[in-house]
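In this section we turn from sequence analysis to structure. A common task in structural bioinformatics is to predict how a protein folds when a small molecule is present, because the ligand can shape the pocket around it. The inputs are simple: the amino acid sequence and a SMILES string for the ligand, here zinc ion. Study the lines below before reading on.
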Amino acid sequence: MMFRILLSLILFLLISCGVSKNPLRKEVKLLQKGIIKDDTSYVYALPFEEGKSFRVIQGYFSPFTHKERAALDFNMKKGVKITAARGGIAIRVKEDGTLGGLKKKYRSHGNNIVIEHEDGSRAGYWHLQHNGALVNVGDTVKQGQVIALSGKTGYALVPHLHFLVWKYDSTRKWQQVATRFQTSNGIKYLRGWKKYKRPVE
Ligand SMILES: [Zn+2]
């Protein structure tokens, strides 16, 4: 399976060579390396159960399908419990999608949950399994609460959780943002191909 992912990735890179010019990409790199310090932003919980670890198979602005996205893909087989990375209110729930794969036509099948946080930012959890949403629109959700089961619906090569956060910037446009997480090795900006464990509190 890993080999198939790698092969597709290499093929994709050959075809679509080049990286995003989004200035956030550079900033995220510096945050990941600790060159820019961030001590004030919200600390998110990893979006799965305490004590479990999952690998990030695509990080921020990865040239495969995240070229213009500040998003993270966690490698997760189907049916894994997804938890809220931050508390808030569920404002969007879709769980009727049944199809998934690397075809554009599958995009609209991607089951997802969007949670709005108290500062107005939003987190999206994508590719949930059919009927895999465990919350309804309007529900108040606590950080760490199980909200969904992972799957492979929508535009997805393998089952995984696509996670992203976005907020309004000063020009009143929705903008994706990189967020830091509490991991078993401290607070970190996650990177591609690394495995992260959610500590038991
Ligand atoms: Zn993704």
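The radius of gyration is 16 Å. As an exercise, try to locate the residues that line the zinc ion site and compare them with your own expectations.
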